[in-house]
Description:
The protein is mainly beta.
Amino acid sequence: MKRNVLAAIALPCLISGCIPASSLHAQQKTSSGTSSSSQDISNPDAPQRSNDGPGAAPTAARSETTESISVVTAAPVAQSDDALTTNIFRDQIQSTAGAYSDIPRFLQTLPGVMFDTDARNTYLVNGGNPLENLYVVDGVEIPNINHISTANTSGGFVSMIDTDDISSVKFHKMLYGPEYSGALSSVLEIKTRDVEELGLHGDVSIGYAGADLVLMRPLGRQGSTVTEFRKSIVNYVTNDIGIDGVPKYWSALSKNIFGLTSHDVLSVLYLTGNDSLAITPNLKDSEDPGFVNTAYTGNRFTLGTTWEHRFSDLTIQRAQIAFSRVRSTSLQTNAITGDSLVDSDTFVDQPATFRYDLSRIGTRWNLQAGASGEVHGINYQIQQPNGFPSPYSRSATPVNPTNIHRVLSPLDAATYGELTYHTPNGFQFSAGGRAQRFGLNQAETYNPRASLRSPSFKGAFLYGGAATYSQLPPIPTMLGAAGNQMLKPISVTQTQIGLIKRTSGDARIGISIYRKLYHDYPVSTQFASLSQADIVDTFGLPFLYLPMISAGSGVASGVEFEFASNPALRAFIQANLASQHVDHKALDGISRPANFDMPILGNIVAGLRLTPNQRLTTRFGYHTGTPYTPYLFKESINQARSIYDLSQINTQRGSDYARLDLRYEVDLSLHRRPFEVYVGLDNVLDRHNYYQYAFIPHCPQCRGPYELTQQGFLVEGGATHRF
Length: 723
């Protein structure tokens, strides 16, 4: 068996671009498809620069028709954390080494954003758990935008949204506003593309993440439609990407905007996707650590309709109705014992949401307020009839036999508001909060926030603030064991201070210090030293339905530094370095490093425009090894199963991670339209980066735990034709 048991992609890239400020009025665009230049909203003193992205150069010839179209688009909303938000272009993601047109993987290169495996696009923000991230697409909250994903995480194998279908991305990772629900660590806002040309046009592309088709066209003079279809292709060339299986998936996205009147806009968003993964360990391979056959299927969709009424350019109200459906199934059998049932899990959640927002932009005061209600339709079935010997117990007796079927319709409700004041001398102060009631456990929370930003002086400004956020534990945790339904919402209090400076050459320098305090964190009642922050990833392993209590706590603190030269230059470099520490306490009250404690994180991204039509980009990523809990090896050998040493939870640490990626791109022309071709070299140095240790019960020659490594050297490529 290959040592590289995890395939997929760690991401390079380019960060901190500028987003075109959308007009409050109908936009005037020509069929050349080129948007006007704009300022970086993260610094109002920044000079204007091109919207073409990092190291940009003229693309292949396009039509010279100058007939304009007028398509009404949704108006932007001023947000109190705009100065802190990372704003990203579509071109920044697509032009970077190893990005595979996958937004979440791109985020793994930002300051303080961690990842623990090349196999998935899961990202962890400022020491947070991977389940603490929220996705918003065109103003609609999406349960999860990723394929091959469970309810225990916000990540997956690859996103359902290809970057050919996006306009820009805003990444909020600290001190974000109270309008967002269920996000302890970050909010990812994705804006899909607006129609820019007359007639039917679009893109077709192919790459490691799949084949993608995007179609766009105006609908009359006051409407537009954009549709994307994406399908996996790796499954056609291999049946194993290094995990004893290969994911299969397809997805579709459609955005339709209609200008009802000069003051009213109606938008409809539809996102859907199907995926599956079959993992079949090779029992004849003594170095294959698996013994559980896993069959996973998933289906998810969201339909959201938003009505926007503009009382004026400065006062806007929005009413939104959205319906989502998330369904996942997993069937796990023991390949050693004749495929006897280990676990069967079927999860369905159908949230229906209504939301109303009102925003007002004034000379000195900005106001945003709103309310939301959400009815869930939960249908959760678990069959683990024989229980399973716990890897946390020395006893071989199976524990937690489970046969659960829960049908629930809890109602969540929230109100929120925020007021921002701009002083005459340039200070900005914001204060607000969110009050929420969770129907699943009848819990109520109130989360205040406040922030302060100084005036800009010679391109530099200071900022700081504090905020609290609340989020329920994952539903499988709450419904998978008797009594867990009354677990409290997890809460976190964030504090952050920092400095951002823009130089005369449009380079960006930033430094920030943060601290996050977690309360009411789920911890095991059976094993006093075990917190949910210490439990290993259960995807592809038997689920562990543990009785838990909201008695844990945690601290994540760190400092981040970033530098980014002007990405529009012929040669550019962007770098970030973070030092952080993440500790959690279980029922015994002892502080231990969490699974996602990585003391040092760093990225260097550089690019060079070789010729007007050729570009070379590279990324080097580094982080200190992830902590792990050693096995009780003699007991594991005697019982032929994994048994962790709970007296040493996360006392050991794997070797450091380092990876170098390269990407070469050439812009050509096909029928006077852009045709882009690229080739990528991932993990150029073919480092065997540590992932985790595994115990292999049927490996007599193994003298200790077997080290699983991450993706090795990989050559990949793709092409995009814009028509």
